[in-house]
Design goal:
Elements: H1 5-12, E1 26-28, E2 36-37, E3 44-53, H2 64-82, E4 85-95, H3 100-116, E5 120-128, E6 132-141, E7 157-161, H4 166-174, H5 182-193, H6 199-204, E8 211-214, H7 219-230, E9 232-237, H8 238-243, H9 249-255, H10 259-268, E10 275-279, H11 284-294, E11 298-306, E12 314-317
Parallel strand pairs: 4-5, 9-12
Antiparallel strand pairs: 1-2, 3-6, 4-6, 7-10, 7-11, 8-10, 9-11
Helix pairs in contact: 2-3, 4-5, 4-10, 9-10
Function: Catalyzes the ATP-dependent phosphorylation of thiamine-monophosphate (TMP) to form thiamine-pyrophosphate (TPP), the active form of vitamin B1.
Protein name: Thiamine-monophosphate kinase
Pathway: Cofactor biosynthesis; thiamine diphosphate biosynthesis; thiamine diphosphate from thiamine phosphate: step 1/1
């Protein structure tokens, strides 16, 4: 007998965290017309949604467990960028047909990450159609400590977490534009298909950082969102960036033979899901301690400056604050869902 919609939900998407009395923030989980969430005293809800479409955001033959992980990870990354703690999420899933082994693997990847971060699956919808995954996630945080995009100040340092460019490098390799050694492709593809949301970092930045954003569309593109929202400009210290842990070994190796492609991966790569944030100079020591506590590289790559009527919002500069000359062929445009 073919599996129907509600059998599918009961079999693969009934999350133990959503059961009554299990999760303090969930008053009523899936199975009713709405879920009921209760943020803690003095907290507000942080809400974000992301859609992943086959052929646009992922290869149709991606491993379903990896897709389940990434579908939730990119949403949790938005909570991280706001400094929020996860509460719950809802899932809308369109499937060409019900392929039980595929769904089982997808649900395993999805719920493993949900369990790791205490984020309960509390509802959603399923239907037949082209493969499409849409998740809406809910978190909580004190409103005064939210890491908003419009809070960057002239004089702030500019930081990025982790390393950049490996996801774009995997994408270029899978498209056949660049050939990677097998071990490097495995590492880079892991970053493309199984990003880790920096939730602990986001919460640790409360009270230290001013503004933050997660890097989904590329370093320069996402930095531009912060600069426009805050009404400021930035100087991106390219030599400092290239010398920092923000450039991982696989991208650094590429820079020796294809510097333009390596810089494209770092500056405009997308799919990194690291955090870009600004913080006052006085927070440097505290941020160094936070990085050590989390075992995470936090690289200082530039500074926020006052905006001017003339000149770009973000200037690429060298260590003397002179314009940095990029090699020919560097692409600086970030990901555009409609391009």
């Amino acid at each position: 007998m073919a599996l129907g919609e509600f059998d599918l939900i009961r079999r693969y998407f009934q999350h133990p965290l959503a059961q009554p009395g299990v999760h303090a923030g969930v008053r009523l989980g899936n199975g009713d017309d709405c879920a009921l969430l209760q943020p803690g005293p003095g907290q507000v809800l942080a809400v974000s949604t992301d859609m992943l479409v086959a052929g646009r955001h992922f290869f149709p033959d991606v491993a379903p467990r990896a897709l389940g992980h990434k579908a939730l990870a990119v949403n949790l990354s938005d909570l991280a960028a706001m400094g929020a703690r996860p509460l719950a999420f809802v899932l809308a899933l369109a499937l060409p047909q019900i392929d039980e082994p595929w769904v089982q693997e997808f649900a395993a990847g999805l719920l493993a990450l949900a369990d790791a971060h205490g984020c309960a699956l509390v509802g959603g919808d399923t239907c037949a159609g082209p493969l499409n995954v849409c998740i809406t996630v809910f978190g909580e945080l004190p409103p005064a400590l939210a890491l908003r995009r419009d809070a960057a100040l002239a004089g702030d340092d500019l930081y990025v977490s982790g390393s950049l460019g490996q996801a774009r490098l995997a994408l270029e390799a899978l498209r056949g534009r660049w050939r990677l050694p097998e071990a490097a492709l495995v590492r880079c593809r892991q970053r493309l298909e199984r990003p880790e949301p920096r939730l602990a970092l986001g919460q640790g930045l409360r009270g230290l950082a001013h503004a933050a954003i997660d890097l989904s569309d590329g370093l320069l593109a996402d930095l531009g969102h912060v600069l426009r929202a805050s009404g400021v400009a930035a100087q991106l210290d390219v030599p400092a960036l290239l010398a920092s842990p923000a450039v991982g070994p696989d991208v650094r190796a590429l820079a020796l033979v294809q510097p333009a492609l390596a810089l494209t991966c770092v500056l405009a790569g997308g799919d990194d899901y690291e955090l870009l944030y600004t913080a006052p100079v006085a927070a440097r020591s505290a941020l160094e301690r936070l990085g050590r506590e989390l075992g995470l590289e936090l690289s200082r790559i530039g500074r926020i400056v006052a905006a001017t009527d003339a000149g770009p919002q973000c200037s690429l500069v060298d260590e003397r604050l002179q314009p940095y000359a990029l090699p020919p062929g560097v692409e600086l445009k970030g990901f555009d869902h409609f391009a």
